[in-house]
Amino acid sequence: MERWIFFILAAVTLAGAANVLAQRRAVHSALSLIVSLGALAGLYALLGAPFIAAIQVIVYSGAIMVLFLFVIMLLDPKSEAEEVDKNPGLIFVALPMVAFLALALFFLIRSAGTPEARPADGPSAIEAVGRALFTEYLLPFELTSVLILVAILGAIVMAKKKV
Question: What predicted TM-score, i.e. pTM, was given to this entire model?
Answer without folding.
Answer: 0.56
